[in-house]
Amino acid sequence: MTAHRILSWSPSAIVFDCDGTLMDTERHWQEARNITFRVFGLTPPAGFADRAKGVHYTECGALMAEETGKPDLVDGLTETLLSTFTSLVDEDPVTMPGAAALVRQAARHRPLAVASNCPQEMVEGCLGRAGLLSHFAHVVVPGGEVRPKPEPDVYALAARLCGVPPEEALAVEDSLTGMESARRAGLRVIGIGPRPPGADAERADLWVASLADPELVSWARSRIGE
After folding, report:
1. 194/132 Cα distance (integer angstroms)
2. What pLDDT, on a 0 to 100 scale, did the predictor assign at position 145?
3. Which of 49, 108, 128, 154 is deepest in the core (most CB within 10 A)?
4. Distance CA 91, CA 35 (A)
5. How far from the centroid of its chain's Cα atoms is residue 152's Cα?
6. What was the pLDDT predicted at 226?
7. Which of 211, 222, 213 is nearest to 98 (CA)?
8. Contact status, residue 85 vs residue 57, Cβ threshold 8 Å
9. In terms of C-beta density within 10 A (0-12 exposed, 13-18 middle, 19 or more buried), how is residue 207 classed?
10. How far apart are CA 142 and CA 103, in angstroms?
11. Is residue 8 packed enough to be buried (19+ CB in 10 Å), middle (13-18) or exposed (0-12)?
């Protein structure tokens, strides 16, 4: 067990994923994917939602085209996916359980950043509507030489912008893709959601059901501050 790597430790900075970690937007991505498939008269392949979770939207559009045998529809699928998701989020921005409380508490004591695969304006818009954006010193997304998760770039840059070495920063993630990114960057990782079987469980040092988990709340009070 590696939970002690979190529970006996105080991070110098915390880097949060956004979708499914801070904001309850993973359901919007799922709905947007389903709508996009329907718009183009396509049937979602079995298990596609699991394969698409945490994937950058441009790569998701390409995956949708590849798995349905429609390579000529990559651009259309990608554009429709993003515009549909944006509309859904605008209509219903909701934070994940415990997210707002943990962010507000931690921001009083540690530098915070967001590392996301989503476009910057979307991340900042979601967090702004939820009243959380001002608590983050940095929002890091793919672009230029910064590659999307599962590459380590967004987490490595977020830690650097917070002024700490990666090994002194904590990543908070809900997707295996994001956890892989954070671990490759050298951060310790809290995984949100059910602990998966097999080797996937090793991608996080500590697994909690949500950011409202009593063990996590107690740890944050003692290791980060009230």
Report:
1. 25
2. 96
3. 154
4. 16
5. 13
6. 73
7. 211
8. yes
9. middle
10. 23
11. exposed
